[in-house]
Amino acid sequence: MTKKVEKKSQGKKKTQVWDGNVRDAALSILLAVDNQQAYSNLLLNQTIEKNKIDAKDRGLLTELTYGTLQYKMTLDYYLEPYVRGKLDDWVRWLLRLSLYQIAFLTKIPDHAAVNESVEIAKHRARHKGVSSTVNGILRSILRDGIRDTSTIADPAEKLAIETSHPLWLVQRYLNDFGYQKTHDMLFENNLPPIQTVRVNTAKVTTDEALQALWDENYSVQRSENLPECLHIIEGQVVRSQAFKDGLITIQDESSMLPANALDVQPGMRVLDMCAAPGGKTTHIAEKMNNEGELIATDLHKHKIKLIEENSERLGLSIIAAEVLDGRKANDQFDAQSFDRILVDAPCSGLGVIRRKPDIKYTKKESDFASLHTIQLALLDAAHDLLKIGGKMVYSTCTIDKMENSDTVSLFLEKHPDMELAPAPQAPEALVALRTTGTMQVFPQDFSSDGFFVAAFVKKAQ
Ligand SMILES: C[S@@+](CC[C@H](N)C(=O)[O-])C[C@H]1O[C@@H](n2cnc3c(N)ncnc32)[C@H](O)[C@@H]1O
């Protein structure tokens, strides 16, 4: 095993994480997520791609990294009685990583998990004592058995420990959604997401895309909810020819709701106000059959390129991407000049905890109010730009009352010319959207990301 090296590159500190040892690589990723605020999903994907890690190691690396992050608080609860004094961060993460294998993975023998961790400790530590501590703690846990959670009396605390979500968040959920929904959501948040893709219907039919992926030996099936959505049972479709040829886009099924709710037609003038990296912009363009005008704006200049790259790969020419603070969109565009507007707002992202478990530990309760203020400001600006009779959609990938239903209520109170617009054109499975114009999707509903969508129409005053 080679020593870890910290490389200075373009002024940014980069950690070289792969030297052929899966557990050691998982530990490096976990440390980078913790110390450098690196995103777990990005760092994991970069490590896999850059080092061309084979399928077997890729699976184990993903499982160890995500599993340990997902159950961080649960693992700390198991460790607590055995830790005396302060541990270095890396030693604590190594113990969590080992304990995750012992407590959650049946395919790895306990003694193998312990031996590997002790070897890593020997290799990384400056003092011999560290590997003895790691060995001692893990062997004591094996002797005593994993700590019981059934004795935790408070239901919120029990859920927090068992599913590894901060207590304040569990209490917020219990308050807003009740016990059963909260319980199901917290457990679902620790399951791996289903990989789904969206068919580029401006180029091919769903049957044609399905056939193209089958021809490349991917295991794929149709979604029961959205006709343009395919579920990938096995295989890395990002490497497929179908992807390179722009027949599909990797997108969670919930993220396909806003374009379905927006009810666009070819030839319309449409604004996508918070557009980068363009997942929904390109969906809208496909639904417009690449005919009309679609302006895609985003606050961050460096993200505009992503919208352009996605549009190009998919062969969608009606998209014009530009930098803009949506709150000041009225300075840029004429009032009442758009048929449709999507506000896919910045949000706390609590609907995507399955993909980015680190979110649940980094969010603070104070974040919600500031996001809610930005969301209302974006909706206000969008309101002015919408034609009478025009429709707009507000969406977030979060599960939070303040950011979702409260934002909608306040917006409707402030703008009496706006009303919720049921979306009968939406697929049948989306009953709430079809009948009320608004829908909170929980991750347990369709095993997709947690998501919120509300559709509005502008009446004449
Ligand atoms: C949820 S993401 C959008 C995802 C995108 N719609 C998609 O489907 O690929 C929110 C986006 O809002 C952008 N954003 C944040 N504040 C903004 C603002 N004031 N005006 C415009 N865009 C903003 C962020 O840069 C981010 O790209």
TrEMBL record:
Organism classification: Bacteria, Bacillati, Bacillota, Bacilli, Bacillales
Enzyme class: transferase
Protein name, entry field: 16S rRNA (cytosine(967)-C(5))-methyltransferase
Protein family (similarity comment): Belongs to the class I-like SAM-binding methyltransferase superfamily. RsmB/NOP family.
One Gene Ontology term from the biological process aspect of the record: regulation of DNA-templated transcription
Catalytic activity: cytidine(967) in 16S rRNA + S-adenosyl-L-methionine = 5-methylcytidine(967) in 16S rRNA + S-adenosyl-L-homocysteine + H(+)
UniProt domain SAM-dependent MTase RsmB/NOP-type: residue ranges: 185-459
Annotated catalytic residues: C397
Record-linked InterPro entries: MeTrfase_RsmB-F_NOP2_cat (IPR049560), MeTrfase_RsmB-F_NOP2_dom (IPR001678), Nop2p (IPR011023), NusB-like_sf (IPR035926), NusB_RsmB_TIM44 (IPR006027), RCMT (IPR023267), rRNA_ssu_MeTfrase_B (IPR004573), RsmB-like_ferredoxin (IPR054728)
